[in-house]
């Protein structure tokens, strides 16, 4: 069964709207979760590392004020795309692993379309 | 130069064929290696981890050559359901479990 759950799976909204995406680890505690973005026909690109109880670590070129990450509990990380614009339309995926050095499990992904 | 490089394909093969993908990585300090499979508009799913000794899972065989910094995936007796994009994935930082993805190799198995 699913190990990591992501919600919502699909969002369509107007430009300027803020969108929150949730990522949950279902049967394990994840002190670290990862957020990726994938544009059409491209590979996944790491956006940020979400750390429980502390600030997220953002990759170069990712605006931390635009992509707000909150990891308030050991099973939940949220990514908020603030004031989304059409260029933010993408496939956003989170991941977590049960233990260090074990493979990552991915959420189902969220397809974000900004009109 | 990309950190993880793959031939994007597509590889078009008939059912029953054997097909091999290669992947090269640039960071010699890389720790862990994986092959993920991604279907169109879906999230990646772990296919198999890759070990230095080589490992096999049914029709799939993965090999790692640390000296040459490349990873391979061999698929025998291809099925239509094997059609997908195969992502070579490298973990550079065991402490953080961060993954770096290759661009993916697209496989299309035809009847």
State the end-to-end CA separation of chain A: 34 Å
Task: State the helicity of chain A in percent bands.
Answer: under 10%
Number of H/I helices of chain A: 0
**How far is the N terminus from the C terminus of chain B?**
37 Å
Number of strands of chain A: 11
Residue stretches of chain B low in confidence (pLDDT < 50, at least 5 long) are: none
How would you briefly describe this protein structure?
By secondary structure, chain A is an all-beta fold.
Describe the 3D structure.
- The complex is a heterodimer of chains A (115) and B (111).
- Chain A has 115 residues and is an all-beta fold.
- Chain A has no helices and 11 strands.
- In chain B, the strands form 2 sheets. In chain B, strands 2, 4, 5, 9, 10 and 11 form a 6-stranded mixed sheet that branches. Chain B has a 5-stranded antiparallel sheet with strand order 1-3-8-7-6, with no helix packed on it.
- Classes of the chains: A mainly beta (115), B mainly beta (111).
- At the A-B interface, strand 5, strand 9 and strand 10 of A face strand 5 and strand 10 of B.
Notable traits:
heterodimer; A: 115 residues; mainly beta; seven-stranded mixed beta sheet; four-stranded antiparallel beta sheet; B: 111 residues; six-stranded mixed beta sheet; five-stranded antiparallel beta sheet; 56% strand; globular
């Amino acid at each position: 069964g699913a190990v990591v759950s992501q919600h919502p799976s699909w969002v369509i909204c107007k430009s300027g709207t803020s969108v929150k995406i949730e990522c949950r680890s279902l049967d394990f505690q994840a002190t670290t979760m990862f957020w990726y973005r994938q544009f059409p026909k491209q590979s996944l690109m790491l956006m940020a590392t979400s750390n429980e109880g502390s600030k997220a670590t953002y990759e170069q070129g990712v605006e931390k004020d635009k992509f707000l990450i909150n990891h308030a509990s050991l099973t939940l990380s949220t990514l908020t795309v603030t004031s989304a614009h059409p260029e933010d339309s993408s496939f956003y995926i989170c991941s977590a692993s049960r233990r260090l050095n074990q493979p990552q499990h991915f959420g189902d992904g969220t397809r974000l379309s900004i009109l | 130069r990309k950190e993880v490089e793959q031939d994007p394909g597509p590889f078009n093969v008939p059912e029953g064929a054997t097909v091999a993908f290669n992947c090269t990585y640039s960071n010699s300090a890389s720790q862990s290696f994986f092959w993920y499979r991604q279907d169109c508009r879906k999230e990646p799913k772990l296919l198999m981890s890759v070990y230095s000794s080589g490992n096999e899972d049914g029709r799939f065989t993965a090999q790692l050559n640390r000296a040459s910094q490349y990873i391979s995936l061999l698929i025998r007796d291809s099925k239509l359901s094997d059609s997908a994009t195969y992502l070579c994935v490298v973990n550079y930082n065991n402490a953080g479990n961060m993954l770096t993805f290759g661009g993916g190799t697209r496989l299309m198995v035809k009847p």
